[in-house]
């Protein structure tokens, strides 16, 4: 069958296929009578309509078309489906509010929906009394500071207040003013969340220095606005979680980090080992650390010099050697040594490493471990000849590695269009190396997900080209 | 007096642990002291398993010598079918394994026996035998009874019944395998690649990471967390495809089904159908995800709408305290 030349021809084909998923894929490009026919095909069986209302990949236009359904089971699925567009959610909210059966559970679903409009959220915040719905608004990322403030002002003392304060103190849209209010009224958890909030004011940071709570001190220690004096003081805190937070603070002065590199706690030294501003003195101390996680994190740190990596590449612990092999700056010389490591997981790290040269990948393809072969298949440095060989591997993971390889050419990928595993054919639908004529037959694939993806791909192509 | 027949499962000269779980399930089905538990073992080396099968709860061991050492669906179907004809057991218990899937349904269908698969509770309610299995993607427990069936075949889910302790001295006898034309041939045994990593299908506590971890450098902190918590760190497909964790740690349709897992903590996993195929049966699933609408929450017993890094930090500090 020939590739259709216009959107209408593609829609016709989907109709002829008689498959609700193919119909859903082209619904957005259909108009008039054709669109009605597609809807008939998709919704005439209740089972198909329910499945489409729930499916995470159902296009917004199909969900919108389903929005008028009176079937409550469909409405619940539309409220839950995160692809349901904003307009449809607003309409569902209005219909549900006016309904004599006004269902609170549906209001909660609308209140937590990511496409719920500000008008709907404001309405719920202002007029609904159901706690679950109000809490859902306070967590919804679509809520703005005005809606959050409105929620908080409604409840001066109520069982819901504590939960609202907690949610709003963590909400990214909470304004500095609202955070100040929350800090004054909230418990220690709310205060800690406020201090850790990106919009927290300098005034509150300064005020929090006086707090004794470890939770608050931990949040504070990670703040980049702290003075060196405060950071130094917190680096001596008796609680290791606070010292950990200091170790992760990018503005911590070098002498503080140098001191934390020899901290009594393993977990603090582990955080230090990942820093990109380590001094030679700290690196020397950490490379001989008794804790394997510290050495492993140092091995991955791209600022570590060759001399140190060479030593860590001989570590008795495979995880440390793997760290070296995954280090973005690992030299080819070390990779050659690690490619012969006794541990397959170290060799796998070499196979995935972008610095591994072609010849080493050619050697690694003789390995028997699937993780190593997958790495070779994934690596953009692998020669096409080798990739072609891997497309017929009996291991699905290895064949998938070739599909994921950004350097795999069209000729290499072509045989994988017939791969036995549906997921592989599905992944190839979006592959830009393949031509449309290569993928066209996937519209008639035995698997419904592949058919849907293929029809959708061609429908989107027509949208982009305007034909 | 009734007889409960257990079909032992073995691979590469070793009995599979599920065999002992079946014996425990069979013991629970005895209605009177006269009832007997027979364990049948099929294969060219059936003789070698009698000592290992002489455990508490077994009344008789039946050796069925066969020309093949490893599992063969035609041989097993013929052997078990003939054995049922001869012994007329009230219940036949098989492991819910890839081996049993190769012949159990055919066997039951051909002879018109009662049949239930993936059973995790089996008991008598009065005089009625009732099997419980999952339904609707394990969302509900379905009780199955077998009206009018005097023989019922069931495949039993692994890691549900606790093997009985102690040994016994059961009678040992042989049973002749009828003539059978096998349609398959065991040529070689291929060990799945992945080296010497832990077998995630046998562990009971798993922490699993998904796309939510963002970057490879973040994997280590979750490995640390899993180690501190005593869990095995697993992952969804994209993490294994990127080479961040071994393929042997991948849960789901492309990976493994974590059959023995009792507690599964899903971190930053949205819950694709393919991933859930490997873990939805776990009795306690804890999901942590910033997206309240993530599919994983539909199967989770406990859902936490939170950033996995905040969760990791807090849990680590609680575990360290």
Description:
- The complex is a heterodimer of chains A (about 475) and B (about 325).
- By secondary structure, chain A is mostly helical.
- Chain A has helices at about 5-15, 20-25, 30-45, 45-55, 60-65, 70-80, 85-100, 105-110, 120-125, 130-140, 145-155, 160-170, 175-185, 190-195, 200-210, 215-220, 230-235, 240-250, 255-260, 265-275, 280-285, 290-300, 305-310, 320-325, 330-340, 345-350, 360-365, 370-380, 385-390, 395-405, 410-415, 420-430, 435-440, 450-465.
- Chain A starts with 6 loop residues before the first helix and ends with a helix.
- A seven-stranded parallel β-sheet of chain B has the order 7-11-6-1-4-5-12, with helices on both faces. In chain B, strands 14-13-15-16-17 form a five-stranded parallel β-sheet.
- The interface of A and B includes residues 82, 112, 345 and 348 of A.
Helices, strands, pairings?
The complex is a heterodimer of chains A (467) and B (321).
Chain A: H1 7-17, H2 20-26, H3 32-43, H4 46-54, H5 60-66, H6 72-80, H7 86-98, H8 104-111, H9 118-127, H10 131-139, H11 145-154, H12 159-170, H13 176-185, H14 188-196, H15 202-208, H16 214-221, H17 228-234, H18 240-248, H19 254-260, H20 266-273, H21 280-287, H22 292-300, H23 306-312, H24 318-326, H25 332-338, H26 344-352, H27 358-364, H28 370-378, H29 384-390, H30 396-404, H31 410-413, H32 422-428, H33 436-439, H34 448-465
Helix pairs in contact in A: 1-3, 2-3, 2-34, 4-6, 8-10, 9-11, 10-12, 12-14, 13-14, 14-16, 16-18, 18-20, 20-22, 22-24, 24-26, 26-28, 28-30, 32-34
Chain B: E1 3-7, E2 10-11, E3 14-15, H1 18-28, E4 36-42, H2 50-53, E5 60-64, H3 73-87, E6 91-95, H4 98-101, H5 104-111, E7 114-119, E8 121-125, E9 128-135, E10 140-145, E11 152-156, E12 171-174, E13 205-209, H6 219-229, E14 232-235, H7 237-241, E15 263-267, H8 273-276, E16 284-289, E17 302-305, H9 308-320
Parallel strand pairs in B: 1-4, 1-6, 4-5, 5-12, 6-11, 7-11, 13-14, 13-15, 15-16, 16-17
Antiparallel strand pairs in B: 2-3, 8-9, 9-10
């Amino acid at each position: 069958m020939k590739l259709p030349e216009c959107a209408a021809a593609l829609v016709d084909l989907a109709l002829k296929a008689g498959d609700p998923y193919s119909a859903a894929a082209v619904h957005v490009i259909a108009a008039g009578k054709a669109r009605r026919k597609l809807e008939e095909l998709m919704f005439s069986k209740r089972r198909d309509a329910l499945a489409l209302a729930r499916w995470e990949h159902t296009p917004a236009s199909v969900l919108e078309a389903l929005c008028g359904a009176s079937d409550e089971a469909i409405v619940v699925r539309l409220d839950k489906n995160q692809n349901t567009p904003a307009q449809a959610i607003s309409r569902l909210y209005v219909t549900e509010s006016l309904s004599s059966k006004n269902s609170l559970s549906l209001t909660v679903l609308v209140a937590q929906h990511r496409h719920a409009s500000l008008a709907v959220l404001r309405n719920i915040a202002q007029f609904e009394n159901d706690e679950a719905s109000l809490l859902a608004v306070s967590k919804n990322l679509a809520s703005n500071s005005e809606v959050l403030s409105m929620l908080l002002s409604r409840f001066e003392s109520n069982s819901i207040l504590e939960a609202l304060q907690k949610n709003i103190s963590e909400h990214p849209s909470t304004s500095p003013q609202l955070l100040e209010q929350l800090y004054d009224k909230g418990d220690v958890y709310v205060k800690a969340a406020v201090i850790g909030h990106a919009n927290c004011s300098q005034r509150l940071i300064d005020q929090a220095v006086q707090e004794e709570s470890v939770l608050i001190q931990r949040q504070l220690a990670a703040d980049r606005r702290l003075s060196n004096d405060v950071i130094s003081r917190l680096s001596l805190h008796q609680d290791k979680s606070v010292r950990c937070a200091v170790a992760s603070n990018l503005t911590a002065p070098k002498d503080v980090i140098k001191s934390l590199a020899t901290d009594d706690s393993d977990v603090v030294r582990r955080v230090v080992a990942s820093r990109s501003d380590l001094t030679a003195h700290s690196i020397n101390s950490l490379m001989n650390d008794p804790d394997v996680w510290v050495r492993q994190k140092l091995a991955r740190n791209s600022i570590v010099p060759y001399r140190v990596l060479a030593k860590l590449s001989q570590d008795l612990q495979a995880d440390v050697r793997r760290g070296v092999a995954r280090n973005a700056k690992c030299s080819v010389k070390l990779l050659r040594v690690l490619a012969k490591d006794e541990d397959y997981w170290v060799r796998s790290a070499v196979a995935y490493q972008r610095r591994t040269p072609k010849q080493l990948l050619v050697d690694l393809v003789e390995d028997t471990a699937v993780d190593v072969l997958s790495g070779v298949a994934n690596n953009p440095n692998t020669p096409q000849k080798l990739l072609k060989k891997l497309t017929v591997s009996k291991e699905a993971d290895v064949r998938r590695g070739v599909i994921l390889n950004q350097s795999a050419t069209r000729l290499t990928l072509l045989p994988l269009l017939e791969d036995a595993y549906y997921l592989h054919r599905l992944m190839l639908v979006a592959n830009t190396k393949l031509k449309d004529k290569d993928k066209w037959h996937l519209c008639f694939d035995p698997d419904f997900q592949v058919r849907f993806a293929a029809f959708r791909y061609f429908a989107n192509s027509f949208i982009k080209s305007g034909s | 007096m009734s007889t409960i027949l257990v079909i032992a499962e073995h691979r590469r000269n070793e009995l599979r642990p599920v065999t002992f779980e079946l014996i425990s399930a069979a013991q629970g089905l005895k209605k009177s002291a006269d009832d007997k538990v027979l364990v049948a073992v099929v294969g060219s080396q059936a003789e070698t398993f009698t000592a290992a099968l002489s455990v508490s709860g077994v009344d008789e061991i039946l050796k069925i010598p066969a020309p093949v050492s490893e599992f063969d669906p035609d041989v097993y179907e013929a052997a078990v079918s003939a054995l049922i004809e001869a012994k007329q057991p009230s219940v036949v218990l098989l492991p819910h394994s890839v081996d049993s899937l190769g012949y159990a349904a055919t066997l039951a269908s051909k002879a018109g026996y009662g049949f239930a698969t993936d059973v995790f509770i089996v008991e008598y309610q009065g005089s009625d035998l009732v099997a419980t299995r999952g339904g609707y993607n394990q969302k509900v427990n379905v009780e199955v009874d077998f009206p009018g069936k005097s023989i019922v075949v069931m495949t039993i889910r692994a890691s549900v019944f606790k093997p009985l302790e102690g040994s016994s001295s059961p009678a040992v006898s042989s049973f002749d395998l009828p003539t059978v034309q096998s349609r398959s041939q065991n040529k070689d045994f291929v060990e799945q690649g992945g080296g010497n990593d832990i077998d995630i299908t046998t562990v009971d506590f798993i922490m699993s990471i998904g796309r939510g971890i963002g970057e490879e450098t973040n994997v280590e902190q979750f490995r640390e967390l899993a180690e501190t918590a005593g869990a095995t760190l697993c992952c969804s497909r994209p993490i294994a495809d990127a080479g961040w964790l071994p393929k042997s740690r991948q849960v789901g349709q492309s990976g493994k089904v974590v059959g023995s897992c009792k507690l599964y903590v899903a971190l930053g996993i949205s819950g694709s159908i393919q991933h859930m195929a490997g873990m939805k049966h776990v009795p306690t699933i804890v999901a942590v995800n910033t997206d309240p609408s993530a599919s994983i929450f539909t199967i989770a017993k406990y859902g936490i709408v939170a950033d996995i890094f905040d969760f990791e930090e807090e849990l680590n500090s609680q575990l360290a305290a």
